């Protein structure tokens, strides 16, 4: 069978084969845009200050977690409020493996990133598989509440198991960013810690995002969307519901585990009460505000939510009635929390496709300009 | 033995609060097929209103007024955030109520402030002693109040026109519409009822001591309760609430025997109980099994 791999000349949007339409970068424009984005990312550390780079590195890690939640909630349609639990599992697996064996908290002393990162993902993925039987039996809102229960049970274990987590208010050091004893984030003459940190996290995000996109356009990804659109119909056409829901939870938890392991390397410290319901809500907000069912939407949402405190702090200069003092009303923190809630509501009511939908609207407007359709 | 009886009775008292909160969830779910994650915010709003109004009005004056105002807040949420979403998937609406919850709680927390607040209830930590069993007054009051409200609610659903309309709308919205039932009014009333129940339940949860912004976590315990009882069963909410309350307090009584589980393991008992029940009965104890059509 011959497969047409190129678009007919001058007609980039005419797809002559299914495999080309399902391609990773179906049009030349996409390829060029992706290349430009890569170049900008590579050069960004030379243009921004260290504090901003640190923030952007955090965004990249959050994006990995959001992609994971996007796979199970956006693609497979299984609402999970339990993402904080899986992030926590990943964070503690990684920090135990990489921790100091003689330290106050449990540690195995294997500081290699190539060991603790996959291990964190796999352990979290394993927990995802353990939870999955519940997911295959339950649907919709029942599942949301059960995963919410997971967060509470997890929070209790994290708070109480102080030989691993260090206990509430104390915490433990985050895993070390090393590969075979060679530090990935040491400040050298050529680059500062934060520059290296950004490159590392952006690189990891690239790997995870491409892997997720590939999964989404494969047989597995199509099974996910079939389950999301109508699970019974999917079952009727031969999608094994139990199997694919389990895969969705396993992959999503793997991503969450990896993101959790990396998330605290930026600040260097893990505090057990971080893994609360609020963290889960933030990730749900990332997926929904970014645009459910798209990888780029999840990334955009993660950047938006993570940058939100910073954006508000910038806006504060123009809105003097918002105080930076935590004892005054209204202060920056309150505005930030309200905005999480209000943004979720506004996006779901007015643009259910999220930031990705806004982009599609803008693109279509200019594509067909001056016509309106 | 007396510690078992004490734990059990304390559980009934705490469980009555859970039952009231859970009834709110179930009423909203039956009418609109949505789980409202905004209940914690409604509850906290009600409690804060009571604590502010109790100074001029007294506790018994403040409670109905606060319940009424919280009912209005529930109505506002229904009109502003839930009504525009009719016809959209249930989980989207649920997430919207989650957003409402986050936003409202920030505003309510401003009114809690940094001071120690209490609801000025008449019971405090006083106890009734029968033999060698101590029962706290506030638990008796919570149980009695819940009993009256539950009886009133069941009578309302059974004997009034509006109650009949609500049952009809829960059964089949389109058929109810065709019979002239105003489904919009049913939605509005169910949110108002849930708001009032949350305010009363929250007030009893806060009775006997001081409260702060973390009280909202109490309302979340109603989620395992409704899963346990079945999402669409009013008796299930009551039975589930009492069961969860008793289980939680009995675990609290005996948790010293299992130090390896960590302190305060009773806090997560409802969630563990929920997971166990769901493994056996996915639709809860009294819930109706959904019949699916492709």
Automatic annotation (TrEMBL), chain A:
Keywords: Cell membrane, Membrane, Transmembrane, Transmembrane helix. It is found in: Cell membrane. This is Branched-chain amino acid ABC transporter permease. InterPro entries: ABC_transp_permease (IPR001851), LivM-like (IPR043428). It is a multi-pass membrane protein. The keyword Ribosomal protein does not apply. Pfam families: BPD_transp_2 (PF02653). The chain crosses the membrane at residues 32-49, 55-77, 84-101, 113-134, 141-158, 197-216, 247-270, 282-308, 329-350. CDD domains: TM_PBP1_LivM_like (cd06581). Its main location: membrane. Signal peptide: none annotated.
Automatic annotation (TrEMBL), chain B:
The keyword Cell membrane applies. Pfam families: BPD_transp_2 (PF02653). It is found in: Cell membrane. It comes from the Bacteria. It is a multi-pass membrane protein. The chain crosses the membrane at residues 12-29, 59-77, 89-112, 140-160, 181-207, 236-254, 260-280. Its main location: membrane. This is Branched-chain amino acid ABC transporter permease. It comes from Asanoa iriomotensis. Keywords: Amino-acid transport, Cell membrane, Membrane, Transmembrane, Transmembrane helix, Transport. InterPro entries: ABC_transp_permease (IPR001851), BCAA_transport_permease (IPR052157). The keyword Methyltransferase does not apply. Belongs to the binding-protein-dependent transport system permease family. LivHM subfamily.
């Amino acid at each position: 069978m011959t497969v047409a791999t190129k678009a007919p000349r001058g007609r980039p949007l005419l797809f002559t084969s299914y495999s080309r339409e399902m391609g990773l970068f179906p049009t030349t424009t996409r390829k060029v845009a992706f290349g430009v984005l890569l170049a900008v990312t590579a050069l960004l550390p030379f243009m921004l200050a260290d504090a901003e780079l640190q923030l952007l590195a955090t965004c990249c890690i959050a994006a990995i977690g959001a992609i994971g939640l996007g796979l199970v909630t956006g693609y497979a349609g299984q609402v999970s409020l339990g993402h904080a639990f899986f992030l926590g599992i990943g964070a503690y697996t990684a920090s135990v493996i990489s921790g100091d064996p003689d330290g106050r908290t449990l540690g195995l002393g294997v500081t290699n990133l190539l060991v603790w990162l996959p291990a964190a993902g796999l352990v979290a993925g394993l927990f995802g598989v353990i939870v999955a039987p519940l997911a295959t039996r339950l649907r919709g809102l029942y599942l949301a509440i059960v995963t919410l229960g997971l967060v509470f049970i997890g929070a209790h274990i994290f708070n109480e198991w102080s030989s691993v987590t260090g206990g509430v208010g104390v915490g433990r050091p985050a895993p070390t960013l090393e590969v075979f004893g060679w530090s990935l984030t040491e400040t050298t003459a050529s680059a500062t810690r934060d520059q290296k940190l950004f490159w590392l996290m952006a690189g990891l995000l690239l790997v995870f995002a491409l892997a997720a996109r590939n999964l989404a356009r494969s047989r597995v990804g199509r099974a996910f969307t079939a389950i999301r659109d109508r699970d019974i119909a999917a079952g009727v056409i031969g999608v094994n519901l139990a199997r694919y829901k389990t895969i969705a939870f396993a992959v999503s938890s793997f991503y969450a585990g990896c993101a959790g392991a990396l998330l605290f390397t930026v600040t260097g410290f893990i505090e057990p009460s971080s893994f609360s319901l609020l963290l889960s809500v933030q990730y749900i907000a990332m997926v929904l505000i970014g645009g459910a069912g798209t990888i780029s939407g999840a990334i955009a949402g993660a950047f938006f939510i993570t940058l939100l405190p910073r954006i508000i702090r910038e806006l504060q200069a123009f809105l003097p009635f918002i105080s930076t003092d935590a004892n005054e009303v209204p202060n920056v923190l309150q505005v930030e929390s309200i905005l999480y809630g209000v943004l979720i509501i506004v996006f779901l009511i007015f643009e259910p496709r999220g930031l990705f939908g806004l982009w599609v609207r803008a693109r279509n407007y200019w594509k067909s300009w001056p016509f309106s359709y | 033995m007396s510690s078992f009886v004490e734990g059990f009775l304390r559980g009934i008292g705490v469980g009555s609060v859970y039952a009231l909160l859970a009834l709110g969830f179930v009423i909203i779910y039956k009418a609109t097929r949505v789980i409202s994650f905004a209940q914690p915010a409604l509850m906290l709003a009600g409690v804060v209103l009571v604590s502010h109004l109790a100074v001029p009005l007294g506790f018994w004056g403040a409670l109905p007024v606060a319940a009424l105002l919280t009912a209005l807040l529930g109505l506002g949420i229904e009109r502003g955030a839930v009504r525009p979403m009719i016809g959209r998937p249930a989980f989207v609406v649920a997430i919207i109520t989650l957003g409402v919850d986050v936003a409202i709680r920030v505003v309510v927390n401003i009114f809690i402030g940094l001071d120690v607040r209490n609801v000025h209830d008449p019971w405090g930590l006083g106890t009734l002693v029968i033999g060698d069993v101590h029962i706290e007054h506030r638990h008796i009051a919570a149980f009695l109040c819940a009993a009256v409200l539950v009886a009133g609610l069941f009578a309302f659903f059974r004997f009034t026109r509006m109650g009949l309309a609500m049952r009809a709308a829960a059964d089949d919205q389109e058929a109810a519409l065709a019979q002239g039932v105003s489904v919009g009014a049913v939605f509005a009333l169910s949110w108002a009822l849930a708001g009032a129940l949350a305010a009363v339940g929250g007030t009893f949860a806060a009775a006997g001591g001081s409260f702060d912004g973390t009280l909202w976590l109490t309302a979340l315990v109603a989620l395992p309760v409704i899963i346990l009882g079945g999402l669409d069963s009013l008796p299930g909410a009551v039975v589930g609430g009492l069961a969860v309350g008793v289980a939680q307090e009995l675990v609290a009584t005996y948790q010293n025997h299992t130090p390896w589980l960590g302190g305060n393991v009773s806090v997560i008992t409802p969630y563990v109980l929920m997971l166990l029940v769901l493994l056996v009965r996915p639709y809860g104890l009294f819930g109706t099994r959904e019949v699916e059509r492709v």
